[in-house]
Amino acid sequence: MDFNLILIRVQMLRRSPLSLHLSLSPLLSLSLCLSLLSLSLSVVEAANATTFNCHINYTNQTQVLVPSFDSRLYMLCFLPAFILLVFTPNLKFLAPLSLVANLMMTASLVLIYFYSLTNITYPINLPKVGRAKDYPLFFGTAIFAFEGIGVVLPLENKMQRPHTFTLVLYLGMGIVTFLYISLGTIEYMCFGDDIGGSITLNLPNCWTYQTVKLLYCFGIFITFALQFYVPAEILIPPAVARVPPRWETAVDLTLRTVLVIFTCALAVLIPELDLVISLVGSVSSSFLALIFPPLLQILTFHTEDLSPLVTVKNAIISVVGLVGFLAGTYIAIEQIIARNALKHEETLSPFMVQ
Question: Where is the Amino acid transporter transmembrane domain (predicted)?
Fold first, then answer.
């Protein structure tokens, strides 16, 4: 088990401290200690298999280094830590940690760019056009990456100077767009069809790039609470309002715990990061970003002389989103089923009588 698999499991769990309620039960504290102990063993295990040789890796050799227990158990090891993290009730407590996480991920990106740029092969043999069935998966992944309405609006509401939000939004999206396009292009030129669902799968098993994976682990872990803030603000207050005041804290913490356990269960049941991202993007992000907003504008302003050009534009955007939703959802589910069936066959094959 190596840092790379730990990173992938944190990414699967992701998609949600001064206020951590120190009155945690001894059972939860014991669970957290066991979690940290298990992860410490993973770090020691990975360290024993890590070298100082950072040669290029075309075979995803960092996926499996030494024998270990089921990777789904590592997901469960992270569960108590995530539960503690989401007990943070306000975004202002997450701001310093989020800044540290962003700095760490920026340092990791610099190292990944350096490795990829120094190991690009002659790209003449790469295909000029991708496979047609991969385009729906690309649609889901791209819309997932750029659709941030769930986080954008709460951040604007919590800003001290909301009038500067437009500048911040355009600047942030410009930087993110550049990083997505440049890094994706460079990595494909470097690894070709051998590129993994996460670029960390292709990094060599040496101390420099193991550090990259650890930095990403921390960054993704911290920002989970930021992603979690939006569904918590939507689902928890109505439930808390229905109970007596003395039960409000208990109900709030219980619901937060249940939501995190639910995301952990999904990560355990569908451990395919790239396909899960595409599926979520096709199903939810396409509705939030492409289908619903144009339709809502038409329904809201149709009595206020909405121009035909705007109506046609909105209709086209909604149709594109609907087509992407249908195609992306179908292909993603089909690929998830196919991969699980293949893994099931590989698991049973040693026990089959020849």
Answer: 28-333
At a CB cut-off of 8 Å and minimum separation 6, what does 94 contact?
88, 222, 225, 226, 229
CB 199 within 8 A of CB 189: no
Amino acid identity for residue 310 in this structure: V
Mean pLDDT for the chain overall? 75
Nearest to 173 by CA among 152, 197, 154: 152
pLDDT value, residue 228:
84
Residue 158 clears pLDDT 60, i.e. is over it: yes
Instruction: Report yes or no: 106 and 244 within 8 Å, Cβ to Cβ.
Output: no
Tokens found for residue 59: 């075979």
- Tokens in use for 69? 């227990």
Residue with tokens 């030129």: 189
CA-to-CA dists, residue 297 to 294, 307, 315, angstroms:
5, 12, 10
pLDDT band of residue 1 (cuts 50, 70, 90) is very low
Question: 206 - beta bridge partners?
Answer: 51
Summarize pLDDT for 213-272 with one digit per residue, the tens. Answer: 888 888 888 888 877 887 888 888 898 888 888 898 899 999 999 999 998 888 888 777
Q: Give the distance, in angstroms, between the CA of residue 348 and the centroid of all CA atoms in the same chain.
A: 31
Q: Angle 91-117/149-158 helices, nearest 10 degrees?
A: 130
Q: What is the pLDDT of residue 148?
A: 66
Residue 349 banded pLDDT, cuts 50, 70, 90: low
Q: Which residues of 62-75 are buried (b: 16+ CB within 10 A; e: fewer)?
A: bbebeebeebeebb
Q: What is the pLDDT of residue 107?
A: 86
Residue 137 neighbours by CB distance under 10 Å = 23
Counting other chains too, the contacts that 340-346 makes at CB distance below 8 Å and 24 or more residues apart are none
Q: CA 25, CA 87: separation in Å to the nearest integer?
A: 14
Beta carbons within 10 angstroms of residue 22's beta carbon: 5
Handedness of CA 33, 97, 154, 293 (dihedral sign): negative
**DSSP alpha helices (H): ranges in 147-246?**
149-158, 165-191, 207-240
